[in-house]
Amino acid sequence: MVASHESLAIFGAGERRDRPLRVFVWLQRKPVGAVSMGIIVVLALAAVFAGRIAPYDPLAQEYSAVLEAPSRHHVMGTDNLGRDILSRVIYGARISLAVGVVAVLIGTSLGTTIGVLSGFFGGALDLIIQRVMDAWLAFPLIIFALGVLAALGPGLPQTMLAVGVVSIPTTSRVIRGSVLAEKQRVYIEAARAIGAGHLRIMLRHIVPNIAATVIVLASLTLARAVLTEATLSFLGVGVPPPNPAWGSMLSGKARDYMLSAPWMAIWPGIFISLTVLSWNLLGDAVRDLLDPRLRNA
C-alpha cells in the first residue's frame, strides 16, 4: 500500500512537471491561438493600466487640435472635439473587455445551471425549460438586447446585464446536450448504485466532466459579447457618451467625417475586429486542446 501511494505521488509530480511542456507544445502547434492569446493579454493589460498608458485624458477636449490627422503628438489623430483617439481606444478596451467578461459570467453561469438541470432531470421540467428557451431564441439577439435596455435604460451595468442575458439560451442548449450524453455513462450508474444523491452526482461527477465544454463555450461567447456591446453602443442604447466605447466612437460624428477624417472610424473598427477575431481563434485553439478527439488531429 505504501509503495502504491509513493508511485501515485511520483506520477502526480510527473504530471505537474509535464504541464509547462504541454503548454509549450500547444503554443508551437497552435501558433494562431498563441498569437490570439498574446493580443488578448496586451488588450487586457492596456485596459487595466489605461490610466498610465493613455497619453491624454480620453474626455479632455482640445479645440486647437480638432480633426487633427495622425501625427507625433496624436498617433491616431483627434476627433471633432479635439479628443485624442489613441487614449479613447485604450479606455474603450476597458469598457469592451469589462462588458464581455461580466456578460459571459452572467450568461455562462445561468445558462450552465439551466442546462444541467434540464438535461439531468428531463421529463416535464426539461420540456418546460426547452420550450421557454425556444421562445427565447425566436427573438434575434440584438432585438432582445434592445428590449432589455429599453426597459432598464442605457448604462454600463445595464449593458452588461443585457449582453449576458441574451447568451443564456444558447449556452443552456449546448450544456443540456453535453449533460444528456454524460449522464448515460457507466460511472453515473455506479454513483447511483452506491446511493449518491442528485446534487452530488451533478456537482461531483457531471459538472467537472463538462467543464471543458463550458470553458470553450465561454471563450467563444466572449467574442459575441464584445461585438454585441459595440453594436448596442453604435445604436446609442449601450454605454452612453462621452464614455469612450468603441461602438459609440463609430457612430455619430464619425460617420459625418468619414471622408475628411476617416481615422475617427478606422481605429475603433480595427480594434473591434481584432478583439472579436482573437477571441474566436483562441476559442478554437482551446477547443482543440481540451477535446481529446481533436487534440492529436
Summarize the structure.
This protein is an all-alpha fold. Helix content is 76%, strand content 0%. It is elongated, with a radius of gyration of 23 Å.
Provide a descriptive summary of the structure in words.
About 75% of the residues lie in helices and about 0% in strands. It starts with a helix and ends with a helix. By secondary structure, it is mainly α. The chain has one domain: MetI-like (MetI-like fold, Orthogonal Bundle), CATH 1.10.3720.10. Residues about 1-15 have low confidence and may be disordered. Helix 4 packs across helix 8 (about 170-180) and helix 6 (about 140-150) runs antiparallel to helix 7.
Strand content: under 5%
**Radius of gyration based on Cα positions:** 23 Å
* Low-pLDDT stretches: 1-15
Average the pLDDT over all residues and give the rounded result. 84
- What is the helix content? over 70%
CATH topology: MetI-like fold
Instruction: Report the CATH architecture.
Output: Orthogonal Bundle
Terminal CA distance reads 39 Å
Order of helices and strands: HHHHHHHHHHHHHHH
> How many beta-strand elements?
0
Shape call: elongated
Please tell me the total number of domains: 1
Largest sheet: none
Total helical elements: 15
Q: Which CATH top level class fits?
A: Mainly Alpha
What is the CATH H-level superfamily?
Answer: MetI-like
Instruction: Determine the structural class based on helices, strands and strand pairing.
Output: mainly alpha
Topology:
Elements: H1 2-29, H2 31-48, H3 50-53, H4 85-121, H5 123-137, H6 141-152, H7 156-166, H8 168-182, H9 186-193, H10 198-209, H11 211-235, H12 246-250, H13 253-256, H14 263-290, H15 292-295
Helix pairs in contact: 2-4, 2-14, 4-5, 4-7, 4-8, 4-11, 4-14, 5-8, 6-7, 7-11, 11-14
